[in-house]
Every structure is written in C-alpha cells, then in structure tokens.
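> example.struct
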C-alpha cells in the first residue's frame, strides 16, 4: 500500500499515465527528470528543496538531435538538465527554448551560452528580460523593495496586510534570483506570426506554437504524435495562475486553456510548475478562472472598485490547497486585469 501512496503523491502526479516512468532518470531533490514518452523527458521541480531550477522543463531526443526546454532559475539548473540529457543521448542540441521570458525560466541561459547552445524564445523575450531584470541587478535591495514594504505598512486591514506581505515575500525572491546570476538573452528570436514551427529531431517531430495568456511571450512545445505538450506557465498545475505580467490577458488565457481542453483526452501536459497532469489539470485551472471571473463579475457590476475587489475575493474550499506565489501576483493581478478587460469591452 505504501508503494501505491508514493505513486499518487510523487512527481508523476495523479495521472496514472503509463507513459510516465516510475523510476526517475535522476532525482536531486530540487528537481527530478523522468521519461514520459518515446524520446520525451520531463524535468519536474520541487521548489521547497531549493531555487536551482524552480520551474519545470524537459528535453526531446530524436535520432539526430535534441531540443531542451527552459533555461531555469540558475545556470546550475540548466546544467543539471543538460547532464540528464547526456545520460540518455549524445545527439547534438538544436536549441534550448525558454517558454517565456520570466526569470525562473530564463536566468540559467548563461549556461547554454558557455556550451554554444542556441537559446530560442519569443521574439519579444530578449528585450523583456533586459527591461525587467537588468534594473534589479546591482540595485539596492531596500530601495527595490520599498514600494512593497510601504504597502504592508499602509495596509488598511489585516487581510490587506497579509496580501501585501505575500507580495513582498514573492518580490524578494525575484530580486534575489535576478541578482544571483549573469543574465543571458535568447539569440534565436521566434516570430509568433511565423509559428507553428516544426522541429525535426529524427523520428521525432516537435511543434512550437505561441498562445496568449501568461506573459505576452508564451510558447508551448507539442508532440502531436504522442499527445504530449510542454506548456510553460500557460499551465501551472495546482497553482493559482500567475497574473503578474503587464502582458497577462485573462480573456486570452481562458481562450488558450479552452484550446488545450479541446486536444486529445489522453494528452499529457508538462506544466510550467506543479506535477505532470492530464486534461484534469486543465479543467481545474479553468474552474479557478471561472470562479475568479464569477466573484469579480458580481463586484464589477455592483461598482466595487478594482483595488477593493481584489482583497474581497474568497478562495473556495476546493481550491484552498492550490499554491499561490503571492496574492497580488495571482488573484490580485487577475482581478485588476479582468476589470481592465471588461472596461475595454464596453
Ligand atoms: Zn512565468
């Protein structure tokens, strides 16, 4: 019985999907790598065990070439995944794809630079890495965190204070990650207008596609022949969706999830965070968005200001185990964004 319990709570998630190898290729605590298909591997992170990788990723290995997914939160994280790839194949690496520009998916790019590996990403990703993270590098921590600390101090209620504190904690992590590594930007921009793009690896075809939602730079890697998708942060399984980006679009994201839900019922998703999942993972995050939209819609119609609405949202019992990066970077952001999108619609 104990064995069964490990299977349902481990990195394989609760999919029961027989494509997922029960034995990891490698497990370092902060992340493990396992086979999930023919030539397909998933790197699943456990953030509670350190900041080396933070996000999930993986690699695809064909007869002739390999494709890496994600740059992770540190060069050591990218190096860890490269070592795992070399345990199963010596094929030349065509490229390493950052599914979007956020630092937990891109800051380890410097490792790829040292190996002469091309870093692929949405054509807007390089600029956004520079604009978002170079101002943090070398900045004074107290100054960088000042606005967040002020919100904690000025909070008008305990609820608001707790939300502000969660945002401060999350931003502190971002600040520290941005300062811990040398930035390296993608050198092969992928124009979303020219996607989908097929990547032939030799007996294995991957397709890179772009969808709106999380960051304005989101890409997924699909393997249609095997019904496997590496989603980046368009899916964080069992997490409240991170709506922290100025380019987040809730309308767009919900439409993207509807598309994911229309794919084969046996699709295996490698989410940007959280455990591997099937369509139930997509259904759950769609329900979260439905709930946010429902609670927010009522407040919007009643004329509650957006600033107040984001603190009034109540996490339903069924989602109370969902991980939240911080209140403002998930629910708060979603509600502010929904207000803006509804206003625009009028
Ligand atoms: Zn992200």
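> example.seq
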């Amino acid at each position: 019985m104990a064995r069964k319990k490990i299977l349902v709570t481990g990195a394989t998630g609760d999919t029961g999907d027989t494509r997922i190898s029960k034995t990891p290729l490698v497990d370092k605590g902060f992340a493990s790598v396992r086979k999930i298909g023919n030539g397909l591997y998933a790197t699943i992170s456990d953030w509670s065990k350190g900041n080396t990788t933070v996000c999930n990723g993986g690699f695809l290995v064909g007869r002739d070439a390999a494709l890496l997914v994600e740059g992770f939160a540190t060069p050591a994280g990218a190096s860890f995944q490269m070592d795992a790839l070399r345990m199963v194949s010596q094929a030349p690496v065509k490229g390493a794809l950052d599914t979007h520009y956020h630092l937990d998916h891109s800051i380890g790019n410097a490792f790829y630079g040292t190996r002469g590996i091309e870093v692929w990403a949405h054509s807007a990703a390089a600029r956004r890495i520079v604009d978002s993270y170079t101002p943090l590098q070398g900045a004074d921590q107290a100054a960088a965190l000042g606005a967040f600390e002020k919100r904690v101090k000025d909070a008008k209620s305990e609820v608001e204070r707790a939300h502000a504190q969660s945002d401060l904690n999350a931003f502190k992590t971002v600040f520290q990650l941005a300062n811990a590594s040398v930035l390296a930007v993608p050198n092969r921009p992928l124009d979303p207008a020219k996607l989908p793009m097929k990547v032939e690896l030799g007996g294995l075809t991957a397709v890179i596609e772009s969808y709106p939602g999380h960051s304005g730079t989101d890409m997924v890697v699909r393997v249609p022949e095997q019904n496997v998708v590496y989603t980046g942060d368009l899916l964080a399984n069992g997490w409240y969706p991170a709506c922290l980006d100025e380019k987040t679009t809730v309308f767009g994201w919900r439409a993207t999830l509807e598309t994911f839900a229309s794919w084969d019922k046996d699709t295996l998703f490698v989410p940007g965070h959280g455990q591997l999942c099937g369509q139930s993972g997509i259904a759950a995050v769609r329900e979260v968005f439905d709930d946010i939209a429902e609670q927010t819609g009522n407040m919007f119609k009643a004329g509650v200001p957006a600033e107040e609405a984001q603190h009034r949202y109540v996490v339903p019992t069924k989602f109370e185990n969902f991980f939240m990066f911080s209140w403002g970077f998930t629910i708060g952001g979603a509600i502010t964004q929904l207000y803006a999108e509804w206003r625009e619609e009028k």
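> remarks
Confidence is low (pLDDT under 50) at residues 1-11.
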